[in-house]
Amino acid sequence: MAAASMSVAEAMWEELVVRAVSKLDKNDYMRYFPKICLTKPTPNEDPLADLDTFDGPGPWDRTLLEVEVENPMDAAAGRRKMLLFSGNDYLNLSSHPAVRKAASKAALVYGMGPRASSMISGHTEYHRLLEDTLADLTKKEACVITPTGFAANTAFLSALGSVASLTAAARRPAKHEKIAIFSDALNHASIIDGLRMVERHQEADVFVYKHNDMKHLDELLSNCPADRKVVYTDSLFSMEGDFAPMLELVELRKKHGFLFVIDDAHTTLVCGKNGGGIAEVYGIEDQIDICIGTLSKATGCIGGFIAYSKKWNCCDGGQKGALVPTGRVEQGPRVLRLN
Ligand SMILES: Cc1ncc(COP(=O)(O)O)c(C=O)c1O
Fold first, then answer.
1. How much is the pLDDT for 201?
2. To test ligand 1's pocket by mutation, which of 296, 305, 306 has the most ligand atoms within 8 angstroms of CB?
3. Which terminus, N or C, of the chain has the lesser number of Cβ atoms within 10 Å?
4. For position 33, what pLDDT does the model report?
């Protein structure tokens, strides 16, 4: 992105990420994600060919709702038929015939499992296709998939913390080098776990604002001297079922210049004309810096993703597809990918 069209905060984050990456490069910590092209045992068969598509609800949409439940405390009582209202498979895609057919076809042609974690042997072109599709859906330029939505939040927070560590003058970030993360009090447990991790590593100071209370958030932001501010919120809160006040958050972003991260787990495929989530509803995709999501809810499967906007896309060309682990790779997906 041309520096002139960037806000001061955007330019600062870009500069930080570039510095963090060049430090990794210098220390030879950069790892490249190979792209694997699987060989088809039966060359004519393409699991993505002739896929069924669908326009609206079908009979499968309700079938899974009826379940039989056994009370583990009272096995003698037998099973009771119940309607399941507690699932997250909002569109029932998990049992849609087209999805089942595509999944079984893919397993028949390619077999099961990734053979190793992606850190070891990379992603197939189908993983890449999924990432590109999710980036398009959320109107971001790039996306990285993770094993779960939980892992997406902890991985992103870990990568964010590593930006503070890698750009610090000394081994640990000094007070002014730490990132200030403002988190809604009712954010998902995976965000809370990730926040604890970066706090423990002394890479960030965490400020919890009262649920959806923009006045409180504004006060905390105004009173915080840190330059590197991040606001992190669920877009639709899982326990309360209410939305974050997105337009007010966008106004605060303009005022305070923070990095805006949303956990869009519950609105992907559910909200927006194209299923692009909450940002699509308001047409504010360009105001969301990082969009975290899961594939275990409306997508009806399992997995998570981190989609990110142009300013994190600071290394093109030579760095394409680079993963950025820190020195603490053993702690899991502490990565940030720059395309
Ligand atoms: C807001 C939110 N974020 C993240 C997650 C974690 O997603 P996953 O179940 O894919 O790990 C959930 C799941 O309940 C959630 O509700």
1. 94
2. 296
3. N
4. 67
Do 136 and 226 belong together in one domain?
A: yes
- Crossing angle of helices 8-26 and 149-166, rounded to 10°: 80
Indicate whether 187 and 64 sit together in one domain. Answer: no
Three-state SS for 209? strand
Residues with CB under 6 A from ligand 1: 148-150, 153, 188, 190, 234, 238, 263, 265-266, 294, 296, 304
Residues 192 and 64 in one domain: no
Residue 23: domain span: 7-34+122-338
- Rounded Cα distance, 231 and 182, in Å: 5
The structure tokens 């447990």 sit at 189
pLDDT over 70 at 72, yes or no: yes
Give the whole-angstrom CA distance, residue 214 versus residue 125: 42
| Same domain, residue pair 318 and 239 | yes
Ligand 1 centroid vs 90 CA: distance in angstroms? 13
82-119 tens-digit pLDDT: 877 778 888 888 888 888 888 888 888 888 877 777 77
237-296 pLDDT tens trace: 998 999 999 999 999 999 999 999 999 999 999 999 999 999 999 999 999 999 999 999
Neighbour-count burial of 179, counting CB atoms closer than 10 A to its CB (0-12 exposed, 13-18 middle, 19+ buried):
buried
Q: What is the pTM of this model?
A: 0.85
Beta-bridge partners for 82: 67
- Residue found under tokens 């109107």: 139
DSSP letters of 125-153?
HHHHHHHHHHHHHTT-SEEEEESSHHHHH
311 vs 4: CA distance, rounded Å: 13
Are 210 and 248 in contact, with CB atoms under 8 Å apart? no
